[in-house]
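One-letter codes give the sequence; each number marks local geometry. A record appears below:


***
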Amino acid sequence: MRRVVLFDIDGTLISGGPAKDAFCEAMLETFSTIGDVEGVSFAGKTDPQIVRELLHGAGYAQDLVESRMADLFARYLQKLEDQLVDRPVNVLPGVPELLAALDQIEDIGVALLTGNILRGAELKLRSAALWHYFEFGSYGSDHEERDELPAIALGRARRAWRETIEPADAIVVGDTPRDVSCGQREGTRTLAVATGHFSFRQLEETGADYVLEDLSATDEVLSLLTA
């Protein structure tokens, strides 16, 4: 039986990089505003959800936002790709070692569960030399609601491996309460890591199955993921 580890990206695997700047530049070019970018939290949300919240707050009609969404993300992706050359992302502690160790375990598959749109996820993880570890995933470009992403990822796991995989066979790893809640809603186990904007205590309060300061203790993390 396959077991599946579903990783968030920003704040879990990587940090830094030019994504927010690229996004804000694309917003200005496409909509002539970035909205209340300091007042709207990006944590744990999908890229399209963030766009809609920012522009709704700025008074933009939904049909106008929808009509320009593809153009916005095309601009964003080009800017992100260009700017990553000089501003690569930072890989968080223990991540390369953990992914390399998981890659050696035959009955465990790793996948992504992220609010990033697919191409944005790929660009960021290629910058970090991590993209090759992930066969598939679920992305903000699949659904705007993060709670829908675990089911999409597990469906892809079943098709890829032609095996019966239940939510209990999976664990969601992320750095925000939204990462935890989407796993809980689907019935997966959850591991929260305090390498993003939420403290260890805040993540404990979510009821996550496991909470760690970071992913640097490879053997300990593996024991939790493979339990």
The two ends are 14 Å apart (CA to CA). The chain has a mean pLDDT of 95. Residues 3-16+88-225 form a domain with the Rossmann fold fold (CATH 3.40.50.1000).
